[in-house]
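Backbone shapes recur. Consider a single case.
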Amino acid sequence: MIPGFPSRRRFSDLSEQEVLALAISSEEDDARIYRTYGERLRVDFPATAAIFDGMAQEEDEHRRRLIDLHAERFGPVIPLIRREHVAGFYARKPVWLIENLGLDRIRAEAEEMERGAQAFYERAAARTSDAATRKLLGDLAHAEAAHSEKAGDLAETHLGEGARQGEDRAAHRQFILTWVQPGLAGLMDGSVSTLAPIFATAFATKDPHTTLLVGLAASVGAGISMGFTEAAHDDGVLSGRGSPFKRGLASGVMTTIGGLGHALPYLIADFWTATTIAICVVFVELWAIVWIQNRFMETPFLRAAFQVVLGGALVFAAGILIGAG
């Protein structure tokens, strides 16, 4: 035992009563997690919220059955033992504490909870040689397996094809608003707004090192500015665009990437080699923006190409003319 750190019991050292108490506390925790998910999703995804309500009720039923079994075998006093008290016991990641947790992530976490509990009890039952303990752990594994089947039944009851498609569309829309839209705006700003200063510096100095420094400064500065602007101008409460931190992060990072793409080639010492590569990168960047607009924002391809490529070409030409003047 390390001084200052509490020791944790090994699962193999637990008595049958303690294993039963651990199962009771785990079922109680899982019911609370499912109810938290349900409340998070109730407004935007009521069908999925109903699934988690049903799963919480199943956990409550499992807990009641386990408590009855404990009272019958060991009496009414249940030992206080939880997951964190047992070394190697499957843990629940505290994702339910995260605001704006996505629908798919919540569904995936719930599935992992059920698989983890069932797999743990099955492995634990296989390792013990005590018949009574093996039976107890096997019963717990069976209960978790039955819960997984019940979850499937609940999904069929509450989440028909139409409801699932509607919720998936809403989740996709939220992904677009929170990540794609600010990220795309940042990529466009970083790619286009840094063209003029980088290429003006390049053709004015013919010095790759100086051009690189200007490009780094312009890219990082634009990323910081765009990130703070996106995060500060809309808290997402009324617009429904999601977390301002996530939107600011997406915008800031993509703005920086957009500028660095044609700044980093100037790490190459030869000016014309670096400039040729930078121009090729600009070409790829602009067409990537066109593809993203067409793919995620449903902007007609020709209109996106006209807006992005023509606008970028004009800024690029302006930078070269200013630098060579």
About this structure: Residues 1-5 have pLDDT under 50 and may be disordered. Strands lie at 9-10, 86-87.
